[in-house]
Amino acid sequence: GHNGIKSIISNLNSKEFIRVRIGVAETSFWTGKVKPLTGEALPKFVLSNFSTPEQKKLQEEVFPKVLESLKLILSEGYVKSMNKFN
Predict the structure, then answer these.
(1) Measured between alpha carbons, how far is 45 from 70 in angstroms, rounded to an integer?
(2) pLDDT tens digits, residue range 35-68?
(3) Which residues in 1-38 are b (16+ Cβ under 10 Å) and which e?
(4) CB–CB of 46/27 below 8 Å?
(5) Which of 22, 25, 48, 82 is the residue whose CA sits 20 to 30 A from 56?
(6) Residue 18 CB contacts under 8 Å (≥ 6 apart), including other chains
């Protein structure tokens, strides 16, 4: 994992915790399909700031799903949440 995950593992002294992963991928304007990113394009894409449309999508679509997933994890367990959201 990246340094943030390494820090969590170090502070918990364990790798045993639930991870909620949010995928990021650039999509084609024309087809809506995910564009494959390789080489220098991937770090540039991942580390760049969110555009205004991306920020709107996060607020309106992504964060509500994350919240719903977290509530399901807490109420019925991570397996049910994985089955619903993956």
Answers:
(1) 27
(2) 766 667 777 777 888 889 888 989 998 899 999 9
(3) eeeeeeeeeeeeeeeeeeeeeeeeeeeeeeeeeeeeee
(4) no
(5) 82
(6) 73, 78
Rounded CA gap, 14 and 54, in Å? 34
Letter for the amino acid at 35? K
34 pairs with which residues across the strands?
27
Q: How far apart are the first and last CA of the chain?
A: 20
Whole-number Å distance between alpha carbons of 67 and 20? 10
**Could you give the CA distance from residue 56 to residue 45 in angstroms, rounded to a whole number?**
18
Q: Report pLDDT digits (tens) over 2-26.
A: 788 899 999 999 999 998 888 766 6
